[in-house]
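Extended Data, panel c. Modelled sequence:
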Amino acid sequence: MATPPRPRLSAYQRAKRVIDRRLSLLGRGVSSPLEAEEIELAPVPTGAVCPAPVNTSMVPADFTRTYQDVFTEVTPNFRQVVYHLRDVNVAWHGTVLKGLRVFVPSLPQDYFELEFGGSFLMRQLSSRRVPALLDGPVGLAFDSWSGNYFHWIAEVLPRLVLLRRVQPDCVVLLPGPRPPEYITRTVSALGFTRTHVIGDGELVRVHDLWMPARPGRHGFMVPELTKEVHDAVISSLQSHLDPSRRATRRLYVSRNRQQWRHLTNEDEVLAVLARYGFETIYFEDMNFVEQVRTMYEASIFIGIHGANMTNLLFMTPGTHALEMLSETYINPSYMCMAAAIGVHYSLVPSKLGSPPNVEHNYADITADPALVDQALRAICGAPE
């Protein structure tokens, strides 16, 4: 099924944006920014190098140029920082606020201040009694994007790595109302035993808050933090993993059960994969432990860009990951993730598979079966 265009904003949504912007500007004018102690754990790296696909000869120049330009822009954000704040409120989506101001580093992007500093802020201040958590250090590492599997694994977990370096015994705030297994399992894997769930629509008052900044941006991640996440999760699940099956399977993950970003010519691609002995998997059928075990057993993993590719983080170093990526949405996330843990990443440049009115982040992809075959032949040799 083709991905439909996303609906246009309603009149109410457009009006709310205008109101939010004006209220946010008013709040900035009458309230001072939140004060926070800034603790630097690591400076901007001096020798950071932009990763690249192993099959660079197949990659159009536009991809390579985009990767390098964004990497150059993002490198200053590899600085590792933890903020220490006192007597603040934390909302159910991880936004930190006090008085008429939002703490901007708690937002996924700076421009969100105009939204979360508007009617949301006024509504919370006027209508809710905020309960206070018990005294002691409290950690916050999620934001309003963290309900997405990719953003939790790729962005929240590296922040928790930073948090455990300064406050390993703190209470960790979790998004509610019922955190899924991948959240509880990964928080435990990183050594945190005490948590507090913030329910939908709730605020909590925190006297002593520790909040790691999101290291990296735009798909580029700090390699050592990403590897530390990999090692912690794999170590925590050793009892569920069979060493005899490590890196023994060739896997294709399908997105045809997802709401958007489908492979339009999946049958043609599957015909190519069949010649190389691939099996098709659906992560929707698996719990978190099963997903990690499946990737531990993968020797070659291929899929199209999307959250399904996130699980390559749990592959074995020295294995191979291939991503079918549209030339209209060049995103380095999985290339960077693979490089951090020693997985060989190849790119299959693909075409836009949706009409132009479908937002590119959600658009379908059409892959050239010949390019898929070329990429696999370089890894596997000629099929039998």
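Residues 18-25+33-43+80-219 form one domain. This feature is highlighted in the accompanying rendering.
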